[in-house]
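Hi all, long-time lurker, first post. I run a small reading group and we've been trying to get comfortable going from sequence to structure in the token notation. Rather than ask abstract questions, I figured I'd post a concrete chain and ask someone more experienced to write out its structure so we can walk through it together at our next meeting. Sequence below, copied exactly:
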Amino acid sequence: MKKITIILVVCLLCATATVSAQFTNSSSAGASQSSDLNGWSGIRVSYSPMQVKSDGETDSFRGLSAGFVKGFRLASQSPVFMEVGANFLWSNSSEDDYDTEINLNMYSINVPLNIGYRYSINEEFSIFPYAGITARGNISGKFTASYDGEKESLNIFDEDDMGDDYTFNRFQVGWQIGFGVNLNRFYLSASFGTDFNELAKDLKISSIPSVTLGINF
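-- Answer (accepted) --
Happy to help. Here is the structure in token form:
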């Protein structure tokens, strides 16, 4: 998982370097600043590795999401935008240790709301730094453990299965900051953030830089 994250982040850095080169060339040629004032709709797919911290220990989660976004200009003559969307997120953590196999799957709906500044380098390139919050509704989740030929399955949102202290919360809110690059209709961004409230008692999620690919129309 770490190798995949490194590769995706390197791709983002390469794209950012290309944009910076375009900006330098435009500036040296005496080109003036341009701003894209049009809104957008888009489809997004994200790889979102996460860390879950509990009692001083850190576990890794992998996450994949897919959804849509809509960008609205907030001022008539300024490229400040509000971007709102919704996506379906699958989160997973697994561990295989000799004769014991542990697996946790959770399915959620995310509703991110970001404010950002879209700066156009030229007709093909633009950059979009942003910050915002995300509301997450956790729909379902299951914890399974196999050991000594036996298998146990627990609903992570059921107090009867997990107990009062370990039952997962259905609703979370968090913050994120990120940096996006638009190349024609294609979009690439990296972001990170953390949740304000706990997923369960003494259990809190923070994201390792997640990478998003998309297309605008």
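A couple of things your group might point at:
The chain has one domain: 2-216.
The first strand starts at residue 40 and ends at 47.
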